[in-house]
Structures are given as C-alpha cells and as structure tokens.
Amino acid sequence: MNLRDLIDQVRKAGHLVEVNTPTCPDPEMARLVYRYDGRPVLFDNVSGYPGWRVLAGVASTREYFAMALNVPVEGLIHKLVAALEKPVAPPVVQDAPCQEVVESDVDLTRLPILRHFPSDGGPYVTAGILVVNDPDYGRNVSFHRLLRLDERRFAARVVEKRGTDTALSKSMGALPVAICIGNSLPVLLAASMSPPMGVDELAVANALSPVSVVPCHTIPLHVPSDCELVLEGHLTRTSAPEGPFVDLTETMDFVRRGPVIEIDCITHRHDPIYQALLPGKLEHKLLMGMPKEPTILAAVSRVCHCTNVVITPGGASWLHAVVQIEKKGSEDGRAAIQAAFQGHGSLKHVVVVDTDVNPYDPLEVEWAIATRFQADRNLLILTDQPGSSLDPSGVHEPGKKARTAKMGLDATIPWGADRVAFEKVRY
Ligand SMILES: Cc1cc2nc3c(=O)[nH]c(=O)nc-3n(C[C@H](O)[C@H](O)[C@H](O)COP(=O)(O)O)c2cc1C
Hints:
This protein is α+β, with helices and mostly antiparallel strands.
C-alpha cells in the first residue's frame, strides 16, 4: 500500500490529525507532532511553502504497519522474516508520480524541512532514505539524517562500515546518491533493515508489498516510483560539521564531521507531501526497532523454539527486547538470552518469557520477572561487550566500537516445576 492510500485509510479510521491553520516548520510543527505522538499528522497549510503539505507520524504504531502490509500485528514479524528470505526485484517503469515536476534550478531552502529543537545544528531531513550503488554489492538503501547546510548542500550522518559508508569508501570521487522522501511504509521498513551485503532493500520492500522503481534523471540510480520527492546528487569526499541532533534515546548527540551531499536536480509530484519524523519519538523508535525483531527471532530459533520477539519503546526501541519462547528444556532460557545478543549486536538487556506472557504488554513482562525469576539463578551478566553508540552510559572512545555490560533475565517457568503454581488464574 502506498503512502497516499495509507493516509486515506487512517483518515477513514478517524486517526489522522489534519492541521489546516498556517503552521511553520521551524519549530511549530515539531511541537504539534510531539503533542500527537502515536497519530499521523498532516499539515495542509505550511507557512512560507505554498504548494507543499507535510506529514509525520504515519509510522508511529504497529497498527499502521499492519494496515500497510495487510496482516495482523502479531503477523508482522513473520512477514518481515519471509521478505528477508525471499526478496523480489522491483519492476522498472519509465513514468512515475515522483517525477511529475523536474527542477534543475536547485534551492533546498524552498523545501519545508523541519527544525525540531532550537539546539539542533539546523533544519534536518529525518525521513529521507538514501539510494546508492556499491560496485560489488549493488543497490543499498538506508536512512541517514541530513543537516541542510545551504541552498544545494547537506551534511549527512553516515555510520561507519554500513552500506552507504562501504560504497562511499570505494568511490574515487563523488558517489551518485538519490534522497527519496515521502515513502510507503514497506519502503521505509526495508530501508531501516540491514540485510546481508548484496541484498537489495527495495527487493525486500517489494516482497512486503508491490513497489516499482524509475530511473533518475541525472544519475544512474533507480528510485521508488511513487515516493513524493527525490533529490538527485552526489555524496562527496569533503566533510562538514554535523550536529548537534536529538537522537533515538531522546538525548543530544554531539557534533561530528559528516560527508557533504551536493544536490543537482529535484523531482517531485505536482502536489507533493514532505514527510518528516520527530527524532526519538514513537515513529523513529518503531522504524529502528522493528527490523531487528526478525533477526533476533532467527538467531534464537537456532537454539530453541522462539515464538515472538518485541523490541520495546521503553528501551529506546534499540537496547531492550522481550523474547518469547516455548520452553522444551532446562537450558532454553539461557540459550535464548545468548542468541538474542547475537541477533542484534546493540541489544543490552533482554527478558525471556513463556508463551502465556504477552510480550507487547510491559505489565505482563514485569509480572513474569516478579513471579518466575530469581536473580541468583536466572540472571546472565556479560561484561565489556561491544555495544551501541547511542547509549550514553557505555564506554565511548573515538574511532572504537562502544563497550557495554549486557544483562539477560530468564523469566520463564523453571524447568520441571509444577506449572500450576506459576500460571495466572483466569478471572
Ligand atoms: C529513522 C531512522 C534514522 C536513521 N538515521 C541514520 C543515520 O543518520 N545514519 C546512519 O548511518 N544510519 C541511520 N539509521 C540506520 C540505518 O538506516 C540502518 O542501520 C540501515 O539499515 C543501514 O543499512 P545498511 O547496513 O544496509 O547500510 C537510521 C534508521 C532509522 C530507522
């Protein structure tokens, strides 16, 4: 389902907040998106940017993903697993809505790019996905926050050793890049995944829900044909200060140098919708965390029978997970903890529960810890592990992977115990 169809669906369901009064992208919009966190907000009247609408929050609950992928919420993880296992190359079309208007006279200040906090380094593109081509691995698609520097340039945050960084490090000069904004949820979800190198994220998106691609005007890349806006340009070998920026953990990320992107051509729809997301809030969290659920599920399934995995928003949707297993042996809980850390390298704390505990409900998970867990028997602590760059409590040294302690709680019913003593009564 494309973005516009989803907007219609959430409007019909009565979830869409439509703001018709003039609203400014700096910083009035961010305040309203924050107020309605968990609901899509469409700004129909953007002060200073005639012809543009702005959308945020459309990826802020699992229900919207379920709507877009036409599966129940509990089925999402299995849909992701299936798409990762069998990506389908997207068909190429020659005419596309995202190219209805072509502008070679580039001026990025004409786009309603939000500034989220007065302390941010400037206006930031937050829901843009970057398409690049790696000479060895082919197309790579991923999210990168982009600080607008001036009329033609951005500074990008490009995490080392991932797809974009790997492709850039191989290019002798500038690397062609297409920045796509206003994407369907399947495309956004696929872009936030890290499948093995060589797997095309747009083929994963197409396996989730049909997506076609169109050739760009000025660079040898293809982009999702029904996105709203495409910025065609080059990632350069020059860098500029990038930050500060409030990130996933809702704490301030510091200033680093990031590669500069120069834009040569802009294409968009006749009546474009600029898509934004509020850093650190539900939409950012879900898009970061959900793609890690299938990778943890796959890792835990290698050691025991794993029935579900939920990355929880209280753990910044990155550092905490609940793993649900059907226990078939005394060591399953402990094995599941170790495997979960393999399935998501940035995971810091994990709770393992039985199938009678709803992993989406924090009260039920805490109940399982309260009634099934003993710290001297069921706690696994690992010291000095590779950790997340996003966790301010980790040990961070420039140029080195962050270090952290990790903890796993086996909150499953002890093997061989009388289950009746542990199972919740039915009221
Ligand atoms: C909303 C959102 C924002 C992100 N911002 C960045 C970013 O600024 N820089 C970055 O390197 N990765 C960022 N990521 C993570 C990458 O998109 C993600 O790790 C991606 O899957 C990397 O894929 P790759 O390993 O194929 O390159 C972000 C992810 C999400 C969901």
